[in-house]
TrEMBL record:
SMART domains for the chain: ZnF_C2H2 (SM00355)
Domain of life: Eukaryota
Domain C2H2-type residues, every copy: 32-54, 60-80
Signal peptide: none
Protein name, UniProt field: C2H2-type domain-containing protein
Length: 113
């Protein structure tokens, strides 16, 4: 892919989420089946959304990275092909403005007394 490509219509491979709606239903609550996760939900749909954060079914076609949501994978995927654009005064360069802001915040943080 060349720089400046549009990932808006791109589709990413997504694994099936191994979860049935009737699994772990008890007194009106749907419990997460992930090990050591004690969360419960009032609907199977909200539990399914939560479960994606554990299994991260959206796969990057370039590296081993996995994401819970396609929108996050689009942002990640762009990092493979776009040149870094955001530069700090210290000359560090970042591909995302959020990372530059985090860097600046960390550099300017006042030490706690």
């Amino acid at each position: 892919m060349e720089e400046g490509h549009d990932t808006g219509q791109m589709e990413f491979e997504e694994e099936d989420i191994p979860l049935r709606n009737d699994e772990n239903f008890w007194y009106g609550h749907y419990f997460c089946t992930w090990p050591r996760c004690d969360l419960w939900f009032s609907t199977p749909g909200t539990r399914r959304k939560h479960f994606r954060t554990h299994c991260r079914p959206v796969l990057c076609s370039v590296c081993p990275k996995r994401m819970a949501w396609t929108r996050d994978m689009r942002k990640h995927f762009d990092t493979h092909f776009k040149r870094p654009r955001y530069q700090c005064r210290c000359e560090k360069i970042y591909s995302k403005m959020d990372n530059l802001k985090k860097h600046i915040k960390e550099k300017t943080a006042q030490p706690k007394l």
